[in-house]
């Protein structure tokens, strides 16, 4: 067989053409309909069957099970979905990814869709230069590229009729019983890991089948291997990911591995049934075991049958899978102060909109950390134990260092996001989050300074009157209420006037209490009822708490677009 290095590069280039088309098409539809897709996931109920349908529909639309999984992980992290609900979506995504095989089988080989790809590009190209239709234009052009890449693949794969030695090479491994299945499962796994796309590997497998390179049962084993390969890719991506990413990857892995195990036990029976009753009986086509042109349809049937059957078989065991992965990947101790940015661990996502979702979750966690610092300060006001006070002060100092690091990392992440072409709404969200992290970092600074003041107060043995301590605790309670409102606003999908009004009233209550404390304080100062040092420390602390209130209302103002 004459198959030169140039021919090999041509084959790789054709595969790259196909993958690039899939990427452009997937990203285009995500950007064009991203908010609607996320809306579908947000509306998920606890019904796992609805989750399967949702995962199937979204993956069928965007032609990327990995993108569906990324969105699912995002909402699990945000608390909008549970792990049990995510199982249903992942199962549905596995079924949805079989649509690629059907597109290739039905249109890629029967209909010469490649002949109309250039006219399709002609339609999409003007849309690319339109601000409103750009993403739809990308989707249309990506769709054309997919089938142009498929046509190039068909031309790059040598014809078995002219190269019978290829078949003889494969036949050395094709008639070894279950060992053959295991060998080609490994081949499918490795191919998917190398190509980084189960859809592309599936298209390559169907193309090789259509050209007569590999027989039906070998191709079926490769399809099972592709199901393993796509989960290993997720596992590699989650190695540096957070606990939610790891659990989702393990859910996907366990689901597919269990499916492959039971399918291997009955694989010959399943393949014979598909060929006899569906390919030959219902479709009235030649046997896929003897005629290579029947294999694409037979393989698509097997792919869909496997994923649908595996979903039906395992959907009732979703709770067990969740419990198992929770034990495999346990949560970190919430009191672990070695804080790390968990939601950015997978880097920028496919679209700016999805990346903004990740940064929002990090901002929410940032808000929780500053609120925890507030709790430490309140404990310092009432704690007289030197040892416990020292521990609290050390924690506040450590948390202040954490807030500095969080601000830098979130800002850097958002600046990377802003390098992309952003819709106006997305650009506003980036600006809003940048303002919020600045305000939250300032809160950390204020609490750090308060901790130092309290530390000096205790060292200098400065004592407050019961009235002063009572005033500070009442002000702390109002600030805590403001924090609660702020967190609700941070977690809200959108800020209404009612949201902002609650934040405004909370800040107003803080100011009124500050004024009351300050007026009483100056009356005592004028009467010289306590020394100057006590007065200065007390004034510093209640004024600092009011400044925290100012930063908290700034967060709600940034969310509502007022700054």
Structure description:
The protein is mainly alpha-helical and 563 residues long. The chain folds into two domains: 5-328, no CATH class; 352-559, Methane Monooxygenase Hydroxylase, Chain G, domain 1, CATH 1.20.58. It has 21 helices and no strands. The chain has helices spanning 5-42, 48-62, 65-78, 83-96, 99-108, 117-128, 134-156, 164-174, 178-195, 198-210, 216-238, 243-265, 267-282, 295-314, 318-328, 352-382, 386-418, 424-459, 466-491, 497-526, 532-559. α1 (5-42) crosses α2 (48-62), α17 (386-418) packs antiparallel against α18 (424-459) and α20 (497-526) runs antiparallel to α21. Mean pLDDT is 77; it is low at 333-338.
Helix and strand layout, with pairings?
Elements: H1 5-42, H2 48-62, H3 65-78, H4 83-96, H5 99-108, H6 117-128, H7 134-156, H8 164-174, H9 178-195, H10 198-210, H11 216-238, H12 243-265, H13 267-282, H14 295-314, H15 318-328, H16 352-382, H17 386-418, H18 424-459, H19 466-491, H20 497-526, H21 532-559
Helix pairs in contact: 1-2, 1-3, 1-7, 2-4, 3-4, 3-16, 4-12, 4-14, 4-15, 5-10, 5-14, 6-7, 9-11, 10-11, 11-12, 11-14, 12-14, 12-15, 13-14, 16-17, 16-18, 16-19, 17-18, 18-21, 19-20, 19-21, 20-21
């Amino acid at each position: 067989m004459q198959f030169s290095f140039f021919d090999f590069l041509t084959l790789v280039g054709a595969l790259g053409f196909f993958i690039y088309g899939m990427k452009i098409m997937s990203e285009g539809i995500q950007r064009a309909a991203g908010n609607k897709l996320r809306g579908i996931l947000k509306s998920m109920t606890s019904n796992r069957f609805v989750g399967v349908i949702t995962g199937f529909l979204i993956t069928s639309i965007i032609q990327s099970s990995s993108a569906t999984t990324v969105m699912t992980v995002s909402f699990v992290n945000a608390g909008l979905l549970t792990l049990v609900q995510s199982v249903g979506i992942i199962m549905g995504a596995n079924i949805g990814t079989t649509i690629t095989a059907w597109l290739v089988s039905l249109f890629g080989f029967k209909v010469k869709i490649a002949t109309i790809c250039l006219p399709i590009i002609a339609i999409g190209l003007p849309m690319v230069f339109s601000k409103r239709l750009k993403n739809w234009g990308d989707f249309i052009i990506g769709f054309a590229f997919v089938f142009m890449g498929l046509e190039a693949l068909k031309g790059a794969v040598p014809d078995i009729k002219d190269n019978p030695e290829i078949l003889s090479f494969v036949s050395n491994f094709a008639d070894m019983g279950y060992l053959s299945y295991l060998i080609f499962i490994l081949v499918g796994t490795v191919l998917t890991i190398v190509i980084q796309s189960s859809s592309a590997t599936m298209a390559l497998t169907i193309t090789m089948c259509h050209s007569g390179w590999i027989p039906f049962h070998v191709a079926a084993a490769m399809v099972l291997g592709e199901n393993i390969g796509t989960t290993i890719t997720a596992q590699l991506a989650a190695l540096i990911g957070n606990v939610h990413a790891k659990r989702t990857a393990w859910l996907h892995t366990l689901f597919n591995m269990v499916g492959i195990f039971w399918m291997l036990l009955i694989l010959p029976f399943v393949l014979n049934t598909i060929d006899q009753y569906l390919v030959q009986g219902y479709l009235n086509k030649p046997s896929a075991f003897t005629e290579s042109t029947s294999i694409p349809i037979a393989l698509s049937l097997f792919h869909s049958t496997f994923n649908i059957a595996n979903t039906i078989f395992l959907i009732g065991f979703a709770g067990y899978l969740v419990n198992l992965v929770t034990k495999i990947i346990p949560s970190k101790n919430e009191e672990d102060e070695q804080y790390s940015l968990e939601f950015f661990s997978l880097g920028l996502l496919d679209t700016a909109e999805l990346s903004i979702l990740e940064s929002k979750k990090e901002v929410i966690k940032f808000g929780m950390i500053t609120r925890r610092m507030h709790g430490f300060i309140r404990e310092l006001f009432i704690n007289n134990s030197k040892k416990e006070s020292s521990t609290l002060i050390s924690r506040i100092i450590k948390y202040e260092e954490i807030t500095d690091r969080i601000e830098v990392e979130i800002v850097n992440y958002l600046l990377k996001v802003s390098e992309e072409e952003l819709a106006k709404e997305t650009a506003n969200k980036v600006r809003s989050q940048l303002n919020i992290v600045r305000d939250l970092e300032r809160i950390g600074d204020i609490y750090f300074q308060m901790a130092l003041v309290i530390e000096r107060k205790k060292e200098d043995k400065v004592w407050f009157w019961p009235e002063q301590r009572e005033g500070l605790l009442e002000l702390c309670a109002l600030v805590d209420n403001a924090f609660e409102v702020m967190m609700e606003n941070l977690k809200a999908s959108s800020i209404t006037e009612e949201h902002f009004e609650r934040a405004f009233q909370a800040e107003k209550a803080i100011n009124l209490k500050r004024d009351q404390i300050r007026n009483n304080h100056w009356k005592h100062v004028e009467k010289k009822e306590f020394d100057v040092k006590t007065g200065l420390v007390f004034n510093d602390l209640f004024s600092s708490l009011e400044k925290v209130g100012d930063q908290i209302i700034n967060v709600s103002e940034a969310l509502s677009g007022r700054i």
